[in-house]
Amino acid sequence: MANTRATSSALRALAVEYKSLQEEPVEGFCVKLVNDDNLFEWEVAIFGPPDTLYMGGCFKARMKFPTDYPYSPPSIRFLTKVWHPNVYENGDLCISILHPPIDDPQSGELPCERWNPTQNVRTILLSVISLLNEPNTYSPANVDASVMYRRWRDSKGKDKEYENIIRKQAMTARAEAERDGLKVPLTLEDYCIKTQVKPNSSEQQVEMTDFYDDDYDEEYDDLSNGSEYPEEDDNDSGNGEL
């Protein structure tokens, strides 16, 4: 019963968030479902912020949500090639906001910097956008990229190796996005405009009730009436050491 309640609660939370992001998009990214009948896997397009090395780029990623979301964090894997201190070779993103809220002094992260259930897709992706331009080099996922970034930063841009790689990747990512019919913002004005994202099909118009069975309301009412929330699984939600 606990697993069923957790899944129902996760579906409700994800349906509300997805509907909100479709109706009120946030500058810097857009989202869609990988499959119309699965709310636990989203495809994300993250736009490179203006006045950064990533400007003009469109970096696709996939978000996978656990069945006990939002009590456990989702995972993010870039589908677009990204050379970045906090992105592993396989595209997995390492960012504190997606790490389980445990006290781990060796990580260099405070518990308050890690995941908590008040976070959501908006806060996650805005944190990712910020991380693109301001990498965490304390515990890098890509050591070579971290060393190269620090040389670029410490030389105040005179060492061009890191910059050249990023700008080339941004141009390639933009070309791929435009081939897919996605308009990439190139100016600050375009970037900040909240444009309504039109779903690819009528099925993308998500109704929350589409993902629940008839027993859901009764189960959710049990939670609302004071029943304990489902206990978090001791197993990692999928992030692990990204």
Automatic annotation (TrEMBL):
<keyword id="KW-0547">Nucleotide-binding</keyword>
<dbReference type="InterPro" id="IPR050113">
    <property type="entry name" value="Ub_conjugating_enzyme"/>
</dbReference>
<comment type="pathway">
    <text>Protein modification; protein ubiquitination.</text>
</comment>
<keyword id="KW-0597">Phosphoprotein</keyword>
<dbReference type="InterPro" id="IPR000608">
    <property type="entry name" value="UBC"/>
</dbReference>
<protein>
    <recommendedName>
        <fullName>UBC core domain-containing protein</fullName>
    </recommendedName>
</protein>
<keyword id="KW-0833">Ubl conjugation pathway</keyword>
<dbReference type="GO" id="GO:0061631">
    <property type="term" value="F:ubiquitin conjugating enzyme activity"/>
</dbReference>
<feature type="compositionally biased region" description="Acidic residues">
    <location>
        <begin position="210"/>
        <end position="222"/>
    </location>
</feature>
<dbReference type="GO" id="GO:0005524">
    <property type="term" value="F:ATP binding"/>
</dbReference>
<keyword id="KW-0067">ATP-binding</keyword>
<feature type="domain" description="UBC core">
    <location>
        <begin position="9"/>
        <end position="175"/>
    </location>
</feature>
<dbReference type="Pfam" id="PF00179">
    <property type="entry name" value="UQ_con"/>
</dbReference>
<comment type="similarity">
    <text>Belongs to the ubiquitin-conjugating enzyme family.</text>
</comment>
<feature type="compositionally biased region" description="Polar residues">
    <location>
        <begin position="198"/>
        <end position="207"/>
    </location>
</feature>
<dbReference type="InterPro" id="IPR016135">
    <property type="entry name" value="UBQ-conjugating_enzyme/RWD"/>
</dbReference>
<keyword id="KW-0808">Transferase</keyword>
<feature type="region of interest" description="Disordered">
    <location>
        <begin position="198"/>
        <end position="242"/>
    </location>
</feature>
<feature type="active site" description="Glycyl thioester intermediate">
    <location>
        <position position="94"/>
    </location>
</feature>
<dbReference type="InterPro" id="IPR023313">
    <property type="entry name" value="UBQ-conjugating_AS"/>
</dbReference>
